[in-house]
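quick one: uridine-diphosphate-N-acetylglucosamine bound model?
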Amino acid sequence: MLAIAILAAGKGTRMHSNIPKVLQKIAGITLLERVLESCKELKPDRTLVIVGHQAQQIKESISYLQDIEFVSQDPQNGTGHAVQQLIPTLKNFDGDLLILNGDVPLLRSKTILELLSNHCTRKASVSILTARLSVPIGYGRVFSDSLGNVDKIIEDRDCSEEEKKNNLTNSGVYCFKWSELKIVLKNLSSNNAQNEIYLTDAIQKLPSAIHTEVTDSDEVNGVNDKQQLSDCENILQERLRRYWMKKGVKFINPTSSTISEKTLFGKDVTIEPETHLRGENIIGDNCHLGPNSFIENTELKANVSILYSVVRDSLIYENVQVGPFSHLRPGTLLQNNCKIGNFVEVKNSSLDTNTKVNHLSYIGDCDIGKAVNIGAGTITANYDGLKKHQTIIGKNSKTGANSVLVAPLKVGEGVTIGAGSTITKDIPNNSLAIERAKQVMKKNWLPKV
Ligand code: UD1
Ligand code: CA
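yep, here:
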């Protein structure tokens, strides 16, 4: 029997944030979700999350997951105190309890599996995941013999200068025999620098303790402050880029771009410098992204090019060109071969195949047919001060430069709109619509001196 407990009740004071520490994100996924993800392969019988500080928010953040049991810790009096709260819930449990700090986001499942397998083979009361760090500051130091038997863990703040030199650190991931841990839990004191009940004090009270050292010490980075959050983000970005490069994505200047965990790429995608993908994206084969672009929650089919542009919550079909300097806002749908050019903003609009908006336009709440040419500077006036209204434009129509289309408006198919027109009335199919004052001509006119 295996139960997992994740400690997520702490205040995270060092983060100086209104967001609970375990809900801080790296590459778009919270620390807590990452810890849970790293345990997925273990197929535990029970998964417990200990919550306290901002408990409601934390519960809601993972409410989509099934079979999570929440245990409350109030007040939050240290990691040992957090684990004491499990005693009633695990009353009839007899098996191994894997405990993980909720702020260790880079762990790989394989590492935890190794810890569990060592734990089973060596039959210890507790197996601790450790790392040798060149800068061990802030971490509990693990004192062990050369065979890996652990004597005790001393917290950084409670170490003497001599003890601080030990660079074998506690990762905050342990596998305990619950039957033995629950007995010693009751005897933990808070006689330490923080006046808290430390889980690490349980180690020396148990009959036997061993440790397993990780090979990649990055995996056990704990996140206590924004600096460590950013360090983890960098490591994860590097991991993601390497993963996608192996799958055929080409980065021109890898370290200048960032990608979210939930972005999927096809083959032969090129990512130019300073290009950032956030949220959930699907990027099709042969897409060319950037330089200097921001793409969020968007699906691009094959051969799409995005140059110096911002694209959010959009769906873009094949062979579409966007940019330079376009802004596609939520609800943009571009069918095959559309072109969105310089200084064009599109919002909540659908453009059918071969339609072009090449220069200086605002297209809001529109339904535009096939092969429409939107002239330079065309603006859809979709907002009357109270409500948004729709503009419908039929296939093969053209709007002249500097047209204003005042919604609600229906422009038929094959329509031509003269340059500079402000259109307020629907236009039937195959018509020309011009709305502008006649040009006044005064011949041989010179200004009076
Ligand atoms: C802890 C370990 C330290 C280890 C380090 C690894 C202890 C006493 N120390 O220190 O040996 O090297 O992690 O990263 O365990 N939490 C609760 N309730 C509380 C306090 C904390 O649930 O009352 C949770 C936090 O939300 C966090 C985790 O426990 O997810 C660790 O707490 P934190 O305060 O970050 O411990 P460290 O000082 O990093
Ligand atoms: Ca920590």
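The helical segments are 31-38, 55-61, 79-84, 86-89, 109-122, 161-164, 178-185, 226-246.
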